[in-house]
Amino acid sequence: MDIEEVKRRAGPREFSPKDDLPEEYRKAATRMIQFHANSEIMGAYLERPFIREAPSLDRKLACSAKVQDEIGHGQLLYRAAESLGLKTRDEMLDELANGEGKFLNCFHYPMESWVETPMIAFFVDGAAMRRQATLKRTSWEPYAHAMDKVCFEEGFHVKHGEAILHELMTGSKKEQEMTQEAFEVWWPRIIQFFGPTNDKSTHHGFASEVGLKQMGNDELRTAFLNAYIPKAEKYGLEIPDEPRIRKNDDGTYEVVEEDLDWDEFFTIAKNDYDGSHQQINGRQKAQEAVDWVREVLDEHEAREFGSTQQQAAD
Amino acid sequence: MAVKESLPAPDELTDEQQEAVEHLLYRLADDEFVVAERYTEWQVRSPTLESDLALANIAQDELGHARLWYDLLEDFGYTESELVWERDPSEWRHSTLVEQPFAEGDWADAIVRSYLYDQAEYIRLEALEESSYPRIRDRIQKIIQEEDYHREHAENWMSRLAEEKQGLERLQTAFDRLFPYALTLFAPTDEDVEDRIDELGLRSDPLDVMREEWLDVVVPFFEDLGVSVDDAELPEQYDVHHSEFDLPEHVGRDQSHTDAWFDLQEEFTHTYQKLDRHEANRIMKDPDEA
Amino acid sequence: MIWEVFRQENAGDYHEHCGNVHAPDREMALMFAEVQHARRKPTNSLWVAPKDEIGEVDTEDAKFGGTTDKSYRWAVTYDFEAAASEVEESTDEQAEADRRRKVQQEKQEAQGGD
User: Fold this and answer.
1) Would you call C72 and B283 a contact, using CB atoms and an 8 Å cutoff?
2) Reported ipTM
3) Torsion angle, CA of C34/C40/C41/C44, rounded to 10 degrees?
4) Which residues between 72 and 111 in chain A have a beta carbon less than 8 angstroms from any beta carbon of chain B?
5) Looking at chain C, which subunits does it touch, using at least 3 CB pairs closer than 8 Å as the criterion?
6) What letter would DSSP give residue A14?
7) pLDDT digits (tens, 9 = 90+) for B180-213
8) Which CATH class is domain C2-53?
9) Is B167 within a domain?
10) ∠ at Cα B141 (B138, B142), nearest 5°?
């Protein structure tokens, strides 16, 4: 199939591993799904210390379940990426460990306090879920199938995040103040989740043309703000003055770009932020520490099936 | 079966009966809570994504069991805050096996620990199936049904790790370090109270009988895999090896703990303390209503 | 040799098990499956897999989803108005899965008797 035919046919769940797809499609899809998978892992990595920090038994259970789900989403997504035939999961995890793998901006920032947990679990997950819901209609069938299960599970994450936010904002004055402070720190990052407005990058255009992406970042940002600003206000959070967000008559939002730190955003995009190094290196160390177990499993598998060769990635 | 006469409701127990029930429940609840707390350290750090999910699930199972046992202690008027979040760490009664820290990447420790623990867990749960205390008896079935996966998980991993030289060496190292601590699983909290637990029929087997039963399972299993138990200080009652039954310095059951426990307790109570919390918030329904 | 057959109706759908065929190899299995399992039912794709290569665990061996209360992992437990339609959809899907799971458990308990 040539790229023109791909563009012509590009509908929801249109292409599967049996299709003979051009390299260009496979590369774009791999880049996008690998980014998504990496983000699940790095999100989980960021949140894992808060399983320990959780201040009640029930909350600890929920935090453990949430981190577990994120790793499960990583599992689904790496498989969807692997099925494009360009990279194996091990290769992608190695890229993530050595700093080549890219992931969401929000997961490059260290998280130090429990009051920050709803910033990820409610707002960032809410933003991610908005995007993921549209990806059920992506053109790469294995990706869409992964999204079916991810979206099925993700409602728990957002509601769990909301429950923590509610608890903090109806708690002591101290808790409310700490939460507001954390919100002010995280809010610009959350807005940047959707990237710069009117993103004309080549990756983005192509991904839309071949049906991988189903909705533009501006539309997603608007939908997110429409749903989550009222929620933030409902819980008594004050939306920071900056970045300035203007609501247009047609219900869309305009974020004043110059109020956001794009240098930082693009430093993060290159994995070059201080927090990036901290998060990536920490996880790399953990991954390498269990290399020996994977070696044992590979040898076992070779004995069982006669070869350690990774099966062709479909 | 020779079921002892059931004990009355929690608020009708004599002080001595209540003390026995409490000791038994602290053994159960504290073990489950602390073992789970340690297991969660493997989340996002396990060897593969699939194994990460599996161990996280086991952690949640155990934590859920702890929750059920603490709930029975709440029958005596304690709150979750008093039982978990505000209890002095030097009052906990878990075995020192479960509080041991993991060295980074020491998956063999996680597996050997869970094997030793889950085999013991299964035996002690079986001994509670006909407990004279109805509140315990009623909760056993749901809990014990989740234990099969735990044992199967540990056994499957052990046999695969043992196939390779480096895996076997790591199993051996983990066994040598953990085994003395594992023996504390069967140590008494207090001799008199433990005797009373048996006399009241709260459990059907005394600690030393359960320990023998456990040794009969775990020792041959390790030996079959090629893990040597020759250096293990097995209890003299156990008739394969005759050496002094020597527990480590810190037993846990008697409220003596290793330093690692105090660090761990500080970490998991950190948010609760920092936010000046006085209550632990619930998400789920009370176990009696669920 | 027996091959299990999985049929996908439309592009993007899931492949669902629909039967099996006797065949000496994968190529022949696909050829036979095409006629046996897809000559009438609308079909976009078929998979075959050797029966012996399929592992199984069922309710005899496993307690899927556990036996103690795990409501902390279900969206329905958290009583908040969904922030957005996708959160609501997810919650509804979970509520439905939970409902079906409970019906199934009750059925098993009634049958099992222990």
Assistant:
1) yes
2) 0.95
3) 50
4) 72, 74-75, 78, 89
5) A, B
6) -
7) 999 999 999 999 999 999 999 999 999 999 999 9
8) alpha beta
9) yes
10) 100
